Amino acid sequence: MRRLPMTLPLLALVACLPAQARAQWDPDNGRWRESDANHLRVMTWNVQDSLCSSSDRKREQGGDWHAIVCIVASLRPDVLLLQETGDNSGNGTGSGVDPVDDLAATIDLFLHGGTDPFEGGEVTSYVRKYAPDYDLPYVFVSSGNDGFNRNIILSRYPFADLNGDTKTRISDIFFVAPDEWAPGGNGGIRGFMFAELDLPDETYPGDAVVGNAHLKAGGASDDHDERIRAAKNVGYFVYYLFAGAGAGTPDPNGKIGDSPQAASVLPPVTPVILGGDWNEDEQRNGGAVGPADWLRQGGSPGGSDGTDLDSSDAVYDSAVEYFTGDRTTQSSSKLDYIAWWDSVASQVRSFVFRTSAIPGGKFPPELYNYPTPENPNPLLASNTASDHRPVIVDLELPVHTQSAPGPFALISPADGASEVGRESLLDWEDASLAESYSLVVATDLGLADRVLEIDGILESQHQLSGPTLEPCATYYWGVLAHNSAGQTGSTPYPAEFHTAGVADFNGDGGINTLDFLLFLNQWNARDPATDLNLDGAINSLDFLFFLNAYTSGC
Fold first, then answer.
1. CATH assignment at residue 231
2. Do residues 125 and 253 share a domain?
3. CA–CA gap between residue 549 and residue 554 (Å, rounded)
4. Dihedral Cα 38, 44, 47, 48, nearest 10 deg
5. Do residues 502 and 550 touch, judged by C-beta distance below 8 A?
6. How does pLDDT run across 235-285, given as a tens digit for each residue?
7. CB distance 336 to 45 below 8 Å
8. Does 427 share its domain with 519?
9. How far apart are CA 240 and CA 196, in angstroms?
């Protein structure tokens, strides 16, 4: 059967429908979310003074605050690392750096809206306005600052002490005495902050530690030296405190000023993840070993003193912009990085997000609120938001595998649907932990008389094609989600649907004179719509198909 073209009102309705209840990565179709809900999405972004208490742009219009809101709502990281926040002077709306409490209140406005205690009035641009099912309720504002700005860690997951030293967050590493490759000291001009995250026990056997820093800017040799000094100290701190330097106990050389001292190293299912604006491009620094390399390799590249838990080198992202392959994050350089213990976590994908490079129609739906929903121009969002572009990494962490896939529902055709085309798309929700799906279509409720049976489907949909189904017939369909622990049936299992008549050209549920006139008109034009027997040609058999359907109906 030929599907009738969608009318414009129906197309508009489809465009306005909420996103399906599944995590998806398909930028070519405007889907920028994780491909699996169990992946941990980490995003780092230098927001160039745009988030501060005195900002007078906390509303739905074309300013920097609103652009950042729309981008965060679009990408929905599980962990968001922000640099260059709280600088009222840099924003041009006030003076000085925000106190910790004022900046925390500002971030609450950024996420949730409300009455602005700093500038008055209501905040009308906030993340949950455009992503109501998303939040970052755990916020850590660093006490470290350079007199201008601070760093922030925001998380979906609560903070918890993971190594027994009674601390869940620190604004800078504990003092490191000179040892091995560490020159000694702290984490640099604005500190290297850390937060320990308690991931959901029902999904993950481990947890995560995240670090965030805005290292010294500038191209002079002493600027580079300051970045390297900080990176060496932090790399040592991560390897010796969290990983135990291969000795199985934290700080085996007694060089880290942690008090009370950590009681244990991290377990082999808990990674350390580092991010931030590290202010040096590892591919454009004249062959020098830059801060990103010191943070991942420790004492030497490829040796047995890397900063990973297993003493190998950690890794950092390979992020590029999706459509152009451009790796730069600020001007013509890549200054922003995310690194992690790849013995524990593996990179699913990494990307640089730049709205000006996205072709029309491929933006996340939340970005069409920029600068206003009535007059969207999402191309402008990145350039307005900041001079840096965010880096995003989706990480696969160890998960419990003893559970069968989670529950999921059939989407289309819905249970009891009528007038279903014989070449319809069968569509269902993603099931958590699913590795594959199997599909059955049958003529009976018990799914014994099967007309279609497919195993090993990797997507949560299947396109029917050819004469698989008969017109004017009743069918039942169901889907099973599979993994190594078992299988889970769809809700419902099965669903019922009814196919349309092959000659119902006007789509009114019956076959009548108007259908006959439409058929003759398309027949004379040799329109492919009259290929009722789906043999790829328009011939007398199609006419017989029509006459039979016209006289019998559904």
1. 3.60.10.10
2. yes
3. 8
4. 180
5. no
6. 999 999 999 999 999 999 999 999 999 999 999 999 999 999 999 999 999
7. yes
8. no
9. 16
